[in-house]
Amino acid sequence: MHVPAVGARNKHWLTIHFPETYFMIQNLLRACAIALAVSLTLPVQARNLRAAESQVPDYPTVEGVKYMGKLLDERSAGKLKLKVFPNGTLGSERDMVEQLKIGGLDLARISLPLLNNMVPESLVPSLPFIFRNEDHMHAVLDGAIGDDILAAMSKQGLIGLAWYDDGARSIYSKKPIRRLADLKGLKLRVQQSDISVAMTEALGASPTPLPYGEVYTAITTGIIDAAENSVLSYETSRHFEVAKYYNETEHMLQPSVVVFSKAVWDRLSESERTLIRQAAKDSVPFGRKLAKERQAKSRADVLAKGTTLIKIEDRDEFIKAIAPVYAQYAPTPELKSLIKRIQDTK
Fold first, then answer.
1. 114-131 pLDDT per residue, tens
2. Residue 245: CA atoms inside 13 Å, Cβ hemisphere, count?
3. Which of 43, 65, 168, 224 is the most exposed place for a label (fewest CB within 10 A)?
4. Are residues 254 and 131 in contact, defined by beta-carbon separation less than 8 angstroms?
5. What is the pLDDT of residues 5-17, one digit of tens each?
């Protein structure tokens, strides 16, 4: 039997000859219309991103990542949300890097030396005394050199987004350090990177790589005699309680880096990537301003609590001592060229 096409003129014919079919079609069309209307009124489900941090909740870098999350939420109209897990809740910085590479974590702010063994370009801004001062470091990292180093991270499953300030790193200890000779044989905690170990050996101390969270106990029990970090970290970690001398070597003006998992990045839309990248860049001035304020406050606080600040008598002898580190960790023409580009930056 020929069945006429469904339409207004055939409605009567269908209802007489195929009433069940007619009402089935009507119900199906009505259900589709309702589903379409509901889908248009429901909000798009938010993408919830996780960010890991090793520092305490009110640390400037943590606040910087939180501010990045605030910008993302505002600019995406709530479609991109970023939850920050401070205090090493999601593991050590080394754990964070491994999670990022497999897509088990979305974003992290990590210390640059953790990437030295994976990303050769990251070795150069990790070198001791590579930056003349804070302004020089910002000029380098905010320009083409900084962008080139961030881009190099993609080969290792990481998307470099932005540079944060960690402050000048100096050595704090149980005894004062005024000259290079005072470091001889000192058991010094360093970051878990080859370049930090090499620097310590060049300075005549005995390097002891340890996770950041173990430093307080290690100083207390005598496993180490000293450690090195910014005055802000020295204060917030309460290391001033067990190491009363903060020796202003300022051997590293070391940036840290905000990185995203490439495994996750590749699943994002272009608009989401643009929002994330821009929010990271725009969080930098906020974090830097806060870091500068907090460094000054921490310095005043530790002095009030009994810390003795020690000025280094001859900084040049420290600089000369670490010269072999440059030769060892920047042996290729590409890395030597990168050092020259940094040194030539005004």
1. 898 899 999 999 999 999
2. 15
3. 43
4. no
5. 444 445 444 445 5
Tell the burial category of 72 from Cβ atoms under 10 Å away from its Cβ (0-12, 13-18, 19+): buried
- Ranges assigned E (strand) in the chain: 47-52, 80-85, 107-111, 158-173, 187-190, 206-209, 226-229, 245-261, 308-311
Length of the chain: 346
Per the CB < 8 A criterion, the answer to whether 118 and 91 are in contact is no
Asked if residues 65 and 258 have their Cβ atoms less than 8 Å apart, the reply is yes
CA distances from 139 to 132, 158, 282, 345 (A): 11, 23, 16, 7
Set out the domains of the chain in order of their start, with CATH numbers: 47-344 (3.40.190.170)
Q: CA separation (Å) from 250 to 36, 134, 169, 176?
A: 63, 11, 5, 15
Query: How many whole angstroms separate alpha carbon 44 and alpha carbon 200?
Result: 53
**Helix 60-75 and helix 270-304, axial crossing angle in degrees, nearest 10:** 150
Residue of 54, 174, 154, 71 whose CA lies nearest to 111: 54
